[in-house]
Amino acid sequence: MNFEKTLISGEFIKRYKRFFVDVKIQDKIVTAHCPNTGSMMGLLKKGNRVWLSKTNDPSRKLKYTLQIIEDERSKVGVNTHLTNKIVLEAIYDKSIKIFKNFNIINREVKFGKNTRFDFQIINEKQKSFIEVKNVTLSRNKGLAEFPDAVTSRGLKHIKELLRASKQGYEIYLLYIIQREDCEELKIAKDIDPEYHEFLIKAVKKKLNVLCYDCKFSTKGIKLNRRIKFKIK
């Protein structure tokens, strides 16, 4: 997933009202859109280096968008709107081996009355649903964690995936770690114990969990390698 333009480097000052961040670029301070509704735990430290994109769209009130934060010398992608683009590119490129034989890819597919799954993939033998989760949290070296706040929405998606499994779908929960410094992922039990407990039960009911980290370059962010999922 390539950025349309070269990103602009700056220094993080503060986040407020959830969707706004102030960033110092050289000798001026700009307000940028924060495309991440999560807590972004551990990343919002004054002085951290950040990268922004800038739009020329005259209808946009905020011209800048926060894309990457560097913390402890590690780049972390914080734009959750890009996560599905990273996954879609990886599916088309056959970078996720387990999905390489699927030839039909549908996005934002409605299931039931109030649910949409990120992807539906189909071949002549199987149909599958994939729900994607963006991961930025790392409190211990080499270990990614999800979630960074209580996620009722995430819990709902697991329950709906199990419903889809009863209707003949293979079901996948795909965690995308938008950072390069982690070797495994675990569920943050101390942050959301209910999510942790229910996910363990869901894995026993044929929920497939996949975890991939990302690779950063001057051009963009791409899916990198599969990493270990630590179930407990």
Q: Report on the biggest sheet.
A: 6 strands, mixed
Query: Given the structure, what is the number of helices?
Result: 3
Strand order of the largest sheet: 7-8-9-12-14-15
Terminal-residue CA separation: 32 Å
Q: Give the CATH architecture of the largest domain.
A: 3-Layer(aba) Sandwich
Strand content: over 45%
| Low-confidence region ranges | none
- The portion of residues assigned to helices is 10-25%
User: What sequence of helices (H) and strands (E) makes up the elements?
Assistant: EEEEEEHEEEEEHEEHEEE
Question: What's the Cα radius of gyration?
Answer: 18 Å
CATH topology of the largest domain: Trna Endonuclease, Chain: A, domain 1
Outline = globular
Mean pLDDT: 96
CATH top level of the largest domain is Alpha Beta
Q: How many distinct folded domains? A: 2
How many E-type strands? 16
SSE-based structural type: alpha/beta
